[in-house]
Structure formats: C-alpha cells, structure tokens
UniProtKB/TrEMBL annotation:
Upper lineage: Eukaryota, Viridiplantae, Streptophyta, Embryophyta, Tracheophyta
SUPFAM superfamilies: Cysteine proteinases, Ubiquitin-like
Organism, scientific name: Gossypium arboreum (Tree cotton)
Record-given protein name: Ubiquitin carboxyl-terminal hydrolase
Region (Disordered): 360-404
UniProt superkingdom: Eukaryota
Ranges of compositional bias, category Basic and acidic residues: 360-380
Function: Recognizes and hydrolyzes the peptide bond at the C-terminal Gly of ubiquitin. Involved in the processing of poly-ubiquitin precursors as well as that of ubiquitinated proteins.
Length: 465
C-alpha cells in the first residue's frame, strides 16, 4: 500500500505529499527524505506516535495514516563542492611531468650486447654534479686542446642524459653508441657479424677518462678537473725492486678501486688491501735487464663518489667468475681510515666512531676492544700510519689536506650497484641498481625498470649474480 498524502516538517521547511510505500521498511522512506533534506538516514529523528521511527520498524504497528504530518530533526551533510580542477591521470601529463610523477628516468634499449654500456650510463646518469657539468659544457663549447671525437662523445653523453630525464618510454642510445665506437674502437669487436659483449669496467674507465678531458674548466689557473674531483681516487705508491734495491714514488688518480676476490677474502677491506699491492716486470737501469718490481699503494685522497670494482675474473685459465660473498661489502669508516694516507676526514670519522660507540652503549672516548675491524687511533691531518703500523711512504707535504669543500666527508652512502649475471667473462648480462633522488631504488635491466627495496640491494653482499 502507498500513502501519498504524508507531509514532513523540518525546521521551517515542509515537504508535502511525500509518498510512503508501506511494503518497504522505514529505512527506504528515510532515504527518500535524505534526497529532499540532505540529512543522512542515521542522523534522522522522525517523530511518530509512541516515539521515534526506526529503520527496521513495521509500518502496521507504527500507525501512519494518509495525510498525517510528521516532524523530522537532524543535521544535514555539508554541500560537497565540485573540485576546481578535475582528476588528472598520469597519461594526460606532459612527458617531463610523467617522469617526475614516476620518480625515475627511462630505461635504455639493448642495441645488441650493449647491456654493459646501458648499465654504465644509468649509474653515471644518477650523479647530479656530472649532469650539471655536462650542461655547462654545452654552453662553453669545444676547447682548442680537445680532440673532435672526445667532444662528440661528451655532447652525445649530455644529449642522452637529457633524453633520459625527459622520457618515460625506453630510449634507444643509438647516437651515443656510434660515437662511443668511434672514440673507443675496442668496443666495436664482433664475432660472426654480431657485436661482442664488453667489460663494463672498461667502459666506465674510458668514458670517465674522455669526460675528464672535456669537462676541465678552461682558462682557469687551477685547471679544475670536474670528473677527477667527482670520481678520482688519488693513490700514493712506492715501487721497489728487491734485486737491485731501486725505489721510486709516484702519485696517480684512478677511477675505481679494485677488490680482488679469492678464497682468502671474506670482507671488502681485505680485497681492497690485495688490490693495493701488485707486481710488475720492467727494465731495470741498474741491472741492465728486466726485473720484478713490487708496487705498494695507499689512498692519498678520496673522491665525492667512490667506485669499487669486485675483480671476480682472473686473466689466467678458464676465465670463470668467482662466486664468493663479502660479509661486509658496504664501506666502513674504520678500515677506510686504515688504508688512507691522508687524514682529511679524521674528525668526521671520529664523530662517527663516537656515535657508533654510543649506540653500542659504550663511552665515546673509550677504546673499543675485540672489534672485528680493529681499533684505529685518530691522529691529526699531518700524520698517518698504515694497517701494519709502519710510517707512510709519502712525505708530510703530500699529506696536506686538499682544498675540497669542507662539507665533503669520508662517509659514503650506497648510490648504485652494477652487477654481472653469468659465470663466464665472455658472456652474461649486466644490470644496474640505482638509487633515485626520491630515495627509491630501481633495477635497470636495459629497457625494463623494476622497483627494488634497499634491503634487497644490501643482501647482494657484493656477490656475483
């Protein structure tokens, strides 16, 4: 039965001829009133004979009649204003805005065994200071002492970085690859008409060397080398021949430290110590024939971005990768302090050591005992000692702190990891794990980008994939 002559009064408003379908529960009637008054059913209080109308009441017992007047009280919802701007979908944004929304740049198409190059580019692309230097180079132009191919590769690097920053779709690095092959023909080796897989560490070194020549500040008396400041680790070496007693000293800047992996190496600092010692054979003026020279090195100065290569392939024999994990492959302040000649960062490391001591519940000024990494005595910037307690091979003049920005410390955060998948040095696949500006990690597998968690990166433990 339908009652059509019922009226409802709310405040000063009267709603006449409201229909009530007594076949439906009172809650349906309240929904009708919600459309008229804006008061949600749960807030409505409708006065009927004997009390309030409940949503599940029986109309036959309520006693509502045709033409009856009902009273309702209740607070209406606020009127929802239409948004000034409609919803914006990611695909409707400009491409540069899509990049910002995604939080990472584009991937790179594999042009035929070019994963070594793609991974190297993705790691270098994550360095904002390098991108800034490349942008400035575009305005300064080619200097007179720079060869044409180096200039071309620098411009191609800049253009590729810009394209990665502005694109959400994978980029084909064709121009960059062609110029790279012109500048460094070693990467153009092929087999049966197919380009061969190359070593990513060689690509890293050669590309940085080229950019180092291009991005020097022209006309500056200091001739600032931007790339060396960012990536160059200064090494002080003592070269001596036991047979002749000859001895010499040299300093150089290298773009990666080598951590040699062997059965005896369990931690990163152990592999680095092996990498700072080597043997070489060369002509001895004193003996008049070739002789074995021993080269022992220590770090003289650290760059803003420290690069470490895990040397897993031996040049002898089967060229099979050594799969061995380093229990501590993330850089630790104490052993870095031990293998550095200069004490530029002694204060920073002392603060970090004291802070770690507090976390362990020990007093900041107490010497820790039983530490796996060994305790390190902090000295001032003019003196140093190596892990064995012997005096450094460099002079005090060589140990004077550099003029780098005071904000630069010896404490590093992991920024990127470049890994090789496969057991052979001549085959396999390279991928890059890169930390983005927003703190998120992305695994770049050529044109695929896969979000990763930082704890997953640390779990790699420096191991081969």
């Amino acid at each position: 039965m339908v009652l059509s002559g019922v009226s409802v009064k709310r405040q000063k408003q009267i709603f006449k001829s409201v229909e009530i379908d007594t076949r439906q529960p009172p809650y349906v009637f309240k929904c009708q009133l919600y459309d008229l008054t804006g008061v949600p059913p749960e807030r409505q209080k409708i006065m009927v004979k004997g009390g309030l109308l409940k949503g599940d009441a029986d109309w036959s017992t309520v006693g509502v009649k045709q033409g009856q007047k009902l009273m309702m009280i209740g607070t209406a919802d606020e009127i929802v204003k239409a948004p000034e701007k409609g919803p914006v979908f990611t695909e409707d944004l400009e491409e540069e805005e899509q990049v910002i929304s995604l939080g990472h740049s584009a991937g790179l198409f594999n042009l035929g065994n070019t994963c070594y190059m793609n991974s190297t580019v993705q790691c270098l692309h994550s360095v904002p200071e390098l991108k800034s230097a490349l942008f400035k180079h575009s305005h300064s132009g080619r200097s007179n002492d720079l060869d044409q191919t180096s200039h071309m590769l620098t411009v191609a690097t800049r253009d590729l970085f810009n394209e990665l920053d502005k694109s959400v779709k994978p980029v084909a690095p064709m121009q960059f690859w062609m110029v790279l092959l012109i500048k460094h023909p070693r990467f153009s080796r092929s087999h049966n008409g197919v380009f061969m897989q190359q070593d990513t560490e060689e690509c890293w070194i050669q590309l940085l060397y080229t950019l180092s020549q291009s991005l020097r500040s022209p006309g500056s008396s200091a001739n600032v080398d931007t790339v060396k400041d960012l990536f160059g680790t200064k090494i002080a070496s003592r070269i001596h021949c036991q047979e002749s007693g000859e001895e010499s000293f040299e300093t150089e800047s290298i773009y990666s430290l080598k951590c040699h992996i062997s059965q005896e190496v369990n931690h990163l600092h152990e592999g680095l110590k092996h990498g700072l010692k080597s043997e070489l054979e060369k002509a001895s003026p004193a003996l008049g024939h070739s002789a074995i020279y021993f080269k022992e090195s220590q770090i003289n100065d650290l760059p803003r971005y420290l690069t470490i290569q895990f040397v897993r392939f031996s040049g002898r024999g089967s060229r099979v990768k050594r799969i061995r994990y380093c229990g501590k492959w993330i850089i630790h302040w104490s052993w870095m302090f031990m293998i550095c000649v200069q004490m530029n960062f002694a204060n920073d490391w002392k603060l970090l050591r004291d802070d770690e001591g507090k976390k362990l519940g020990s007093k900041a000024n107490e010497k820790s005992s039983g530490s796996k990494d060994g305790d390190v005595k902090m000295t001032d910037a003019e003196g140093s000692s190596n892990a064995g307690g012997e005096s450094s091979a460099t002079t005090s003049q060589e140990a004077v702190p550099s003029d780098k920005e005071t904000s630069l410390t010896g404490i590093y955060d992991l920024a990127a990891v470049l890994t090789h998948k496969g057991r052979s040095a001549d085959f396999g696949h390279y991928v890059a794990w890169v930390k983005q500006e927003n703190g998120k990690w992305i695994e770049f597998d050529d044109d695929n980008h896969i979000p990763q968690q930082e704890e997953d990166i640390v779990k790699l433990s420096g191991g081969g994939v």
